[in-house]
Amino acid sequence: MIRFLQKDSRAVKAIFIVIISVACITMVVTLVPGIFSDQVSSADTYATIHGSGVFGRIFGSSDEVSTQEVQQLAQRMLQRQQLPDFVLPFMMQRVGQGLIQQHIELQEANRLGVKVTDEDIRSFLHTGMWGQVLFPNGKYVGDAQYASLVSQNFGLSREQFENELKKEIQENRLRSFVTAGMTVSDQQVRESYLQQGTKIKFDYAVISADDLRKTINPSDTELQAFFKQNAARYAKAIPETRKIQYIAFNTSNLPGGAPQVTDAEVQQYYSQHQKDYQVDDQVKVRHILIKVDQNADPKADAAAKQKAEDILKQLHNGGNFADLAKKNSDDPGSKDQGGELGFLKHGVTVPEFDKAAFALQPGQTSDLVRTKFGYHIIQTEEKQTAHTRPLDEVKQTIVSVLTRQKESDAQQAFGQQLASEAQKNGLSQTATAHHLQVTTTDYIAQNAIIPTLADGSQMLTTAFTAKQGAAPQVASTGDGYAVFQVEDVHAAHAPSFDEYKSHIQDDFRDQQLPQLLSRKTSELADKAKAENDLAKAAKEVGATVKSSDLVGRDAQVPDIGQLASTAPQLFDLSVGQISNAIQGQRTGAVVKLTQKQQPTPDEVQKNFDQTRDSLLDQKREEMFAVFVTNLTDKYQKEGRISISKRAQQPGLPGAPGAPGAPGAPRS
């Protein structure tokens, strides 16, 4: 090797340089985890999950999670769960962490040789729910219908859908691979069912924290001592307030009046937004459902079918569809509306229902239609073929949109003009020049309501980040805009004892209450056990005695909560035995067991297989959760998870310690 290196060769020198360079890069990557988190990421990169080893990090063996992907999935989840838009940042945190964890799992699956082929995906789509939808009666619905179903239900292309499906199958196979060796013993199964099936009934004495709180009446001396001891707590108890000057205006104050929308602008908007006015084939229907499971025994199926046929006969004899639906339908979502389902597009309902509804003409009623839900009677009320809504039909909507847009643009422009003038001439002179009025608030807090404004929240939020005397700024007020300036600031400060006495008393009570509740509940338990009389002990301490129903571990008991989490020890008591103190957030309780019902050996044996499967699933989930947690920790320690700087900003998805950060719970 030495002789080789001593040769005067450019090739040798080049090789030597490469070796040294790789060694240096290795040291940098190893000693500075995450060094490439932003330099190698595009602006849209949310996170990068690097492959194993140094070369995996340097030479591209990594997966990227894009910010666009995180945001789109979060928005779809918001729409599906019907949540407000302000939840989006929190949803992005959960989605971002979920996608990071998914990539980690998929990398590990590939490393372990857990693969999914195109044939696996085809096989999956032929079975289960998708088999019924895509291959009704064994016949493929066609590529166009398949793509339409995926687009309508998931907002994805067919290729994207199958890619996501592949990931899901691979994750499930990894789960099976990791947990394949998990077993449970017969004894564990029996104990699990005994635990699940045991029910108890009891009397319980309750001490209310709210009632106990009223008994805490400290003297002024005690409160003053508490106030001094907690001086840091009250150092800024009186929040910062600010005095704000502003000029408010709306469309009526705009120079030249409200802007007008021309026919040409309407036509241009309509031409640019043709897709917004396209209407798919759809049908307006109502139905009556007689529910019966598709795997029901023949007798139950025949009874349901007979009931449906009787209703159909009444319809043929002039019966009112809506009245019969209200009286007989088993669909809780539509029966009270006379079976009304509204307009439906192709693919929204199960195939049998879809086919029958679109085959009918307006006013026609179907024969019985059997689906997995039961027997349907369908009446088509109206049909619409695919078309683009004409301009005349949507013109007023477009005019409203353009008017709001023009008014907003004009108001913002006018606001900026006023702000510029106020910077030179002051708010008062600017207001006078435009026949407007200056308003000065009292000293107000950031969460105050300004009576003269429809919505002053944006102005207050901005004002409380601005410096006193800073240049005038513009903010929306809900029905217009305001140009404002901070005139004066009163910093947050500590109150005097007298002006804050009631708050100090509340804080003192809150601090004393948990210990007092715990002590009183323990005294109650001790008395009840000593006298073997719960009712007598409760009377002596002023507690209320109640009785439970016969309940299991998952039951919610008033003043105690869910037994499985707040008082699982009750299931270990014997009949007649009195419990120790049970501490809740707002109550304390002591229990005397009056009845205990355990499953019989026959019941245990009858439910043995089901319990074993359930217990095994639970153990597998726990085992896989530990596996994923350890795997994620390993990736973090090795610096293989790189979060973009933007995602690490406080409050944004992926910020360290935020719900979306690596290591946080997965949604």
Strand order of the largest sheet: 14-3-18-17
Low-confidence stretches: 1-41, 54-60, 650-667
Shape: extended
Biggest pleated-sheet summary:
4 strands, antiparallel
Distance between the termini: 56 Å
Q: Please state roughly what percent of the residues sit in beta strands, choosing from under 5%, 5-15%, 15-25%, 25-35%, 35-45% or over 45%.
A: 15-25%
Secondary-structure content class: alpha+beta
**How many domains?**
5
Number of helices: 24
Rg is 35 Å
**What's the overall average pLDDT, rounded?**
86
Helix content: 40-55%
Total beta-strand segments:
19
How is this structure best described in words?
It is built from 24 helices and 19 strands. The strands form six sheets. It has a four-stranded antiparallel beta sheet with strand order 14-3-18-17. Strands 11-4-13-12 form a four-stranded antiparallel beta sheet. Strands 7-6-9-8 form a four-stranded antiparallel beta sheet, sandwiched between helices. Strand 8 and strand 9 (374-384) form a beta hairpin. The longest helix has 35 residues, at 391-425. It is extended and about 90 Å long.
Briefly characterize the structure.
With 667 residues, this protein is an alpha+beta fold. It has five domains: 1-32, no CATH class; 34-106 and 160-197 and 598-667, no CATH class; 199-216 and 503-597, Roll (Chitinase A, domain 3), CATH 3.10.50; 241-268 and 392-490, Roll (Chitinase A, domain 3), CATH 3.10.50; 281-385, Chitinase A, domain 3. Helices cover 48% and strands 16% of the residues.
